[in-house]
Each structure stands twice: as structure tokens, then as C-alpha cells.
Amino acid sequence: MRLRFLFLLPLFSGLTATAGGFDTGPQGARVLGLGGASTAYIGSIAGISVNPGLLGQLGDSLLRVSMGGIGQVRRSSFIGQDTYQRTDQELTIQPGGYFYATRAVSKRVAVGLSLTTPYGYHTKWPETWEGRSVIQESQLNTFFVQPTVGIKLNDNFNAGVGVVYAFGKYSQRRALGQYDDPTAQAKFTSSGSGLGLNVGLYGRTGDNLAFGISYRSGVKLKMNNGKATTTGIPDRDGALYPRTGDFTTDFSLPSTLSVGIADRITKNLLVTFDFTLTGWSTQDSLKLNVAASGGAPDRRITTARRYEDALAFRVGAEYQIGAKLTALAGLRYDETPIRDEYINPEFIDANRLGVSTGFSYQVSPRLALEAAYAFDYGQLRTARANQQIEQVANVSGSYRTVTHTASVGVALAF
Amino acid sequence: MKNFCLTPWHRAGFVAAALLLNACAPNQDTPTPTTRVDVSRYLAVGDTYTAGFSAGGLTRVSQEYSYPNLIARQLQGASNGAAFSQPLLEAGTGAGYFNLVDFPADGFFRTRRVEGREVRSTVINPMACSGADTVRLLARSATAGTLPQNLGVPGLVLSQIEVSGLGNETMAAPGATFNPYFERLLPAGSDQTYLQAVTTAAAASTFFTFFLGLDDLLPYVRSGGQCGPVPNSTLSSQMRQNAKKILDQLTAGGRPGIIARLPSFATLPILRSGKGLGLQARLQSKFSDDALVYIEDPIGLGNTQPITDDDYVLATALPRIGQPTAVLVGATTLMLPYGRDIRNPLRDADVLDKDELSRVSVVLNSYNNELDRLATDVYKMPVITPAKKQSTLDLDVLLFNPVAGSVSLAGVVYTAEPVRGNFFSLDYYSLTPRGNALLANAFISAFNKAYRANIPAIDANSLPTSAQ
């Protein structure tokens, strides 16, 4: 029976795939505890942001709500290749949260809404670190709103579709190290939105085994309201670096293709597996198109990223300890989309091995408390800057990255 | 897991629940600076560059950023108790330097000379090649009793290393061979020669760098071939012989060190931006015409001739090109654009023409080849560039040529342009503190390769962009 799913394997073979990148982890306390393996998991309505196909199964006559907060700390250390100087990123918390609501509107149709913060990062290096002229601080926050419809095709099969409206804010600043003034800086801030689509299927092949497959399209955030500002420029170069200017940019958020199975091994133990292929290759380069201002002509600041599509493998387990308490555990391996040649301190990532744990406590039939924690440990990355390519700002050295993600939330039924 | 640290912090979460996370930066092993050879007593031998000359002058601040001082600072990480002494000037004294006045949109920055201040006395030499020259006697260095470890002397030429009295105050007279920067390194009234000083200092040293010989050729280049000894085979053989005399002392007993080849002059901003046809094209586009650039015949006998791509107009003359100047044509005085009219050619002193440059290049190459030969065959020094089996530090390949094509170091671009390039200082040939850091890094990298050491490089971006 299980061999049936082997057809999925060729999908991924031959890909030098790598999900990682700047996703902020599973969007829900319960799925975080499960390591994110939720494509075929109906234990939490948080699954609908990953697989809208779950909605037909999840939706019932009750209005179900799940909401909570997520905090992620992603931190890297750096050692300069030639200078031997160690720099640690400053501690920042990438705030996130989720809100889900589902309800069946007929026997076959259920509707849902999800609000999530699936992508983002906050990189903050000390002001005077070695790579300050490459980047000092960079921040991306995204908000996804996804109204979803789920349809029960028959007792065992469900399909769902959701429309994604995404909003994102991006900012970065770096020192202009060619000047003596330590406050000489260039800052860029912008925001924008884009649309996407999320479709999925969920099926059961018996009481114990379920599968899910879903695809969420990439979203291109069009940011047309960018503001570029500079400070600390000496008078002689005032014309080269105007104090303020406008810029536009696009930010491509990746598509995801997820395949998962959930297997109830015993009455109390459920195990889930997920493969996710994330289409990071749309993140080709970050182009800031700065408009002409004052005496300075328009120009384009390009940071090549050349991300690769990335594969993540996730395993989760849910164990019913008692009538009220469920324990969660997960293990995952996320390959990084960032190639060696394009490691840049604006966003550091590595192939990561992650473990997670969590619990759900059913306080009453209508209220459950959920909490989870995940820790990811990244491989050592070594960046080699080519000094001769003057357009590319980078710094040579090695990076080690860890992430801590924690989430708490509640699941309610009315 | 070493990567956890248990400093708990606390933050109110999105849902007003408190999140408790343990987070600290992941650990990495930091390399330890190491060296197998003894670098505890480092001796730097050289001229203008080595002394820490910057923006047309030597000041106390520019001495602090001399490349030997920067190297010494890095060596100290691997060699406990290593110290480095420099003949520091008193603040405010020296031969004067340039300050930046402004940088107009025409691309030619303007400088102002801050006059030097002597401490003991001033000797004016009215017969100096490029107009009256002022020699200032400065306060004697605090290191005069023992000789400093930085023996870089501005204006020191190889042909004078055995001149007795080069550093004796009594020789400070117009037209005499005298170097006030050498004088202040020695006890009063000493007739020691530079070679003797190197001999004495080398005996107390464990490691050396040698970057000497540029000052033999610089005056000729900077004056458009008007001043300094004419580069010829006599000068070339004298430089080679005298360099060997110094190096014999420095390498005595197999003392480890780095010998630097001289960089070629065409990468220095004094020449680089005035390369014949490129300059002519820039001027034609600036003035929207197709006038040629004319230069005087180098020998002064023949006709005015159009500039070729092997002639270089000195950077100091560039702002004047195209400005109308009065010229006597026949019996009438006309205002003609300087250098852009066949009747008003660029003066010989403003141009290092192809014959002059080739003379310089012949001497430079012959000298550099001798340094290669000495390092490899005579002193059997370890190889720095394996591909070429070269035991000398080739500054052109490793530093000056890359900078001329512009390099990006941790997000900061360095070019050969003074002011914005942050490498060369306002005098068009000496280095800024950051330029000195890159030069020091070239030496450190060569040292690491040759002696299999791990000496960290300097973060040049953290140094000032000028020593003034």
C-alpha cells in the first residue's frame, strides 16, 4: 500500500535541491513542534497555509480558530579570512504570528482564512564590524493573507484552493566606508505587495494512512515606494550621494511544492513525512533601481543572489500521552538555496539540521494550548570575496549560523 | 552542545505570552597568529614610503600609519614582547604637507600646502632644480642614541648610502649632499653613513623588510625629466651595487626578511591619469572639439609634436591644459589654450615623454631583476610566488596593478585616484593610511607565504583616509 507513494520520488531525483533560505519556519505552534511536516497533517488547522487541500477535511460545523505568536532568533558568527577577527551578529528577534479560522459552509464545502508571516529575516551586525560597508542591517517582513476554499470530493479525497495576498517590507543599511565619518551611511526602505495562488490535495487510503500534495506559487512583491537616504556624506561628494532619493525593487518570494504522508502507527502515535521543494531560484538578484536625484544620475544597485531551488526533508511525530496532553517532536534537514559563491552577510544561511519539540494541551473541548521550540544548526559556510570585481561588495570569511524558533498559541472552537 | 549558552532573556510575545529563549552566537575557532621565524626585532629599510610620508609631507600622524609600523603591530600578535621604535617627529613639525581645499566638478581637486615648521634652523637652497628648496633641521629623534627600527628616510637615494656626513648638520648648506631626516636619526655631529647605520641596526634585528630605490627615480619622474640624476646605466649599476651592500648586511647570517621590487611608475597617479591618447580623448570630449595635445620636443631642438600614447602628462599639470595662456607668436601676443594648440605646446617639465619614461623603465627593470637575482640565487630566500619561483615581493602584481584597476575590499572600493580612491594621497604618489595598510598587508601576505606563518591582515577600512 505504501509503495504507492514511490511515484513521488522521481519528482525530486536529479535536483540538486536544497528549503532553508529566509523562511521563518512552520506557521503554527503545533506544526512547529512537528518539525513542519504538515502537508498531510490534520491535527491543526494551521496546515491550510501549507496545503489548502486539508481544509475540506478540517472544516466542520464549528468555527475553529488557531492563533499564536512566533519568535525566531537567527544568529551567525563571522571570522574574517585574513584579519582573523571574530564578529557575532547582534541578537534580533524576528517577530511573527499566525491566525487561522475554518468553518464548513455545507456538507462538501468549507471556507478558511489564514494570516501568516512565512518569510523574513532580521540581520544586524555590529555597527563597526569588518563588513560594515557591505551590510550593517537588513530586514524583511512579510504578511500573507490567504482566503481558502476546501471541497470534499468524496469521503477520502479533498481539494482546496486559496488566493494569497502578500505584503512585505524591506529595509537595509550599510556604512559608506570610503569616508572617515563613521556615521556615513546609505539606507534603503520599501514595501510592496503581490498575489499568489495555493492549491492542494489531501487523501486517505484507509484509516491509518493519508497523503497530501500542494503547490503554492511564488509571489513577487512589487515595491515602488522605496526611499533611499544617505547621511554623513562630505560636501565634496554631496552630488554623488543625494540625501534622499526614490527607488523601486521587486522581491521574489519562492514557490513551494510539498508532498507529505501521515501514518498512524499506533492508536497514540502519528508519524508524518514531508518533502518540500522551494523554488528559490526566482531570487536571482536584488536590484535597487535608484531614480535620478539632484546631480546624481539614475543607477541600479545589484546584489547577485542566484539562489538555487532547495529541498527540505521533514519528519514529525505526535504522541498522545493522555486524554489531554499530546507531545510533539520533529526532525528536519533543510538545504540552503545559497551557493558558495554568493554567500553574503546580508543574509547568511547554511544547510541546516533542525530538531523541534512541543506539546498541545487540551484545556477544555473548546480550548487547547500549544507551544513548541525548534533549534537549527547550520554547516560552516566560507565566503571568498573577489576583490577584483569592484561592483560586488562582499567580505571574505567563514560563517556559522544557528536559529532558535519558538511559538505559543491557542486553538479554539466555537 | 557548546553552541547553546544559557543567558536567558525574556520578551513579551505576540500573544502576550512570555517567550523564553536561550540564544547566543554559535562558536567558531578563531585562528591563532603564529610564526616560525623570530620577528621580535623587526627592521624596516627604505625611503619615502617606508618613512610614512603621506600627502607631500612627513608628520607625526603619518609616521604612525607608516606601513612598517602597521606590520609591526600585526607581528606583535604572534610574537610576545615585540616592540617597534620609530623616529617620531614632534607634533606640528616637519616639511609641510597638502590639505584638500575642494573637489570641483571638473574632476581636479585642489590642495593647499601647509608650510612646514623647522625646530632648529632652516637652510634655503636657491639653486635647487625646481626652484628654491627649503631644508629644515628638525628635532633630533628620541631614538638617536640607538637608531630606530624604522630606518625609512624620506629622500634617501641609494647613490648616497656611503656618503659620509649625509646626516651631519655641518653639511646642511646649499648644494651639499645632506638629508635632514637622516640627520635627526643620528647623534649630533655624526658622520655615520646610511650603510653603517643599517649595519649597526641589522645586527640587533631578527627580521627585515627592504623597499628602497624609488627615491632614486622619483625626482626625475615628478619633474618631467628635469631634476634628479638622469637614469642611465651608471645610475642603474650604482643602484644595484649599493642595494647589494645593504642587503648583504640585512641578510647576514640568514636573517629572514622580505625584499620588495619597486612598482612601475605608470600605475602611480602622477603619471597614470595623464597617459597620452586617453587624456587627449577626455579633453576632446570635455571641450567638444578634436584638437590634439601638443608637447615640446623632448630634446628641445625639434618641432612641437602631437602627444603619443607613451607620453605622460604629469597630474600636477592636468588642470592647466586648455586654459588660455599668453604666447608670443611672431610679434603679437595671443591667448592660446595651453597644450591644445600647436603654437602653445605643453612644456617639457609638465610631461614625462616616452624617451624619459623608457630611461626610467630600463633602470627600474634592471634594478628589479637584480633584486630577484639576489633574493633567489645569492641569499636563497624562500619563494613568495611559486608560479614564478620568485622570492621577492612583486608589488605591481600584488597591489599597484589591482588598485589601478580598482578593487573592492569588504564593500569599499579603492582606486588609483587620489581623494576618492583612498589609496594614494594628495601628492599623487605617496599613500594614505589605508594605502599603507594595503601595502602592509601585501608584505604580511608575502611573509605568510614565504615563512609559512599566520599573521593576520589589517582591516584597512578601519583606518583614516588621510594622515592630516
UniProtKB/TrEMBL annotation, chain A:
Pfam families per the UniProt record, alphabetical: Toluene_X
Keywords assigned by UniProt, alphabetized: Cell outer membrane, Membrane, Signal, Transmembrane, Transmembrane beta strand
Membrane protein topology class: Multi-pass membrane protein
InterPro entries: OMPP1/FadL/TodX
Presence of the UniProt keyword Signal in the record: yes
Gene3D superfamilies recorded: Outer membrane protein transport protein (OMPP1/FadL/TodX)
Membrane keyword on record: yes
Location of the protein in the cell: Cell outer membrane
Extent of the signal sequence: 1-19
Top-level taxon of origin: Bacteria
Record-stated family: Belongs to the OmpP1/FadL family.
Protein name: Outer membrane protein transport protein
UniProtKB/TrEMBL annotation, chain B:
Organism: Hymenobacter jeongseonensis
Leader peptide range in chain numbering: 1-25
Protein name as it appears in the record: Uncharacterized protein
Keywords recorded for this protein, A-Z: Signal
